Structures are given as structure tokens and as C-alpha cells.
Amino acid sequence: MSLLEERYRYWLRLLPASYRAEREEEMVAVFLEGSPDASDADGPRPRWSEIASVVALAVRVRLGGAGAAPRYLSWGETVRLVALLGLLFQAFLAVLDVVAALNTYGVIGTVHPSLAQAAGPLGSFERLANVLRSLAGAVWIAPFAALVLGHVRTAKALALLAFVPELHVLTSSVGVTFEALAGLLSPVVVLSALWTGFHRDARPARRPLWLLVPPLAAGIAVSALFRLVASPDLPAWWWPWLDLLGLASTLILGAGVGYVCVHIRSPARRTPSWPLALAILAVPVLCARLARLEHGFDAADEVSRTIMLSTLGQTAALLLVALVLAVLGFRALPAARGPSPEPPRTAYP
Q1: Which H or E run contains 61?
Q2: How far is Cα 153 from Cα 199, in angstroms, rounded to an integer?
Q3: What pLDDT was estimated at residue 42?
Q4: CA–CA distance, 343 with 177 (Å, rounded to integer)
Q5: DSSP letter at 332?
Q6: Whose CA, among 25, 33, 86, 136, lies 20 to 30 Å from 152?
């Protein structure tokens, strides 16, 4: 075996064993034909384009490509569900941002004097910059809508555009902190799931248009609820449930408990994709919560200690539900062995 062939086979290990058993020899032969004069003395290596093609093929095969084994089909559905649910939550947060901006700038409701002062003088550049900054998160509505409507490429491009404002933490004058990076993890997970799960060999799926309604309705409802309950007299243990991470934890906990009930009462409706997707989405939320906990252990007053204990309880509950969901999801996965994948539409990308 030549050195170049050995290196090709090394990269082909990224592919599932069942796929390699049928196509490794053919793929190696095709790659070697492109370098007929390679000599071991020259230390030949696979081209970067060839490595990238193998990596892309491995992602497609392992995430439910054409004719993939049942287990890989399940993982593909899981990753696509992560992208869909993640974008749905980002769209929900975007609606909250829009409602908050409308309230801040007096379009709806009565503007608090402190908010009016922070918004900047009317007609000033400062005010315009604050308006644009307040509405930056609203861009997340666009990729979610595009994905529901079936425009996957548009959704991917719009999601990248929506992610750009999130990167301001990397250019902050106070430096990059672990807490800031943990906060970026959630949109990074959603973007990764969107770009890897919706590959060219993924099975097309039709999504009902009513999926566009929940983020809008929930955003308006939660905004109205905040105006009713948010007050200095609100018990301190409520506050960790009202911020961004608290809302994410509530939704994951609710969906997780709901799935566990379905899993117990309706065995025919068990699926690996829902519990695994919810467990994956819980990871960035847990990381962000743990990153913030370090600021609460030295709390001196009673209110701060209550908030910290409530946060600890929320984190523990989310961790427990995520572990249960992960176990149920892995148990529901089909057997590793299954029908061999069919060749992709193009032989080797």
C-alpha cells in the first residue's frame, strides 16, 4: 500500500463502516487515478478539496442521506428538528425584542421616563442607532419563516445574517468572557444544525404554515405577561424564570415533560428525534446558566441568595430532564445495522 493510499484510507474512516465496506475500494481507486505519478519519497497527501468532499459526504451519510441506514435517518431527523425548534425559539425572542422596542419608543403603551431618556433625543443619530440595535434580533424571524416555507438555502443565508449581531460580544471592549461565549453557544448550535442537517440528500419535508403563528402569539402573550407581573413586589425566586435563559428552560422543561408523558402512555408514538433534539437544545442553556452561577455564590443579601437558589433549582431540573430525554432518545434509536446507503446524486463531491 502506497503512502498516498494509506492517507486516503485514513480520511475515509470518517464514513460509516457499512458505507466503506461497499465503496471504499472504488473511492480509493478514483482518488488515486487523480495522482498517477505520486511517489512515497515526495510525501504525497490528499488534496484539501478531496478531504472536504469526504467530510461533506460523511456528514450527509451520517445525517440521513439518500438510502441511509435507519439509525442515520433518525440522527438526520434529530438535527433538522434541532434547527427548526432553535429557529422557532429565536423567532419568539425576536418578537419579544420588537414588542420591547415598540414600547421603548412610544409606539405602544406609555413610555417610562427612564426608557425615553435612554433612547436618546428624538431625531438624533443616537436614537436611530438605538432603534437599529433594538431591532437587530428581529432578523431571526426571517430564517424561521423561510425554513417553514421550504426555502432552505434562503433560510441558511438569513440565519448567518441574523447571527452577525450576536458576534458583538467578541469585539466588546471589556474582553471576551466565558459567560459571553456560553451565550453564543445556542445560536451556534442552531446554525450548525441548520447547515449540516438540511443537506442536499436530506429527505424533503412539508411543514404546515401554522408553525409561523406560535412564535408571534407566544411573543405577544409573554410580553403582555411581563407588563402584568414584572414589578418590584414580585417574589425573588420568580426572576430566574423571566430572563432569556429562564424562558428557554421553561420551554425545554415543558416540552420534555410532555414527551416523557407521551413516551409512557403511548408507546406507538415514541421517537428518538424529539427527546434527542430537546436534550441537545438543553446543553447550551445549561452552559449559559452555569456560566452565570459563579456571580451568585458570594451573594450577601437575602434576595440575591433566593435568586441563586432558584437558579440552582432550575438548572438541576433542566439537567435531570435533559438526561432523561437523552436516555429515552438513545434507547429509541434503531439498530446500528441496516440497509446500505445508496450512492449520492453525484458520485464523489
Answers
A1: helix 48-62
A2: 10
A3: 73
A4: 45
A5: H
A6: 136
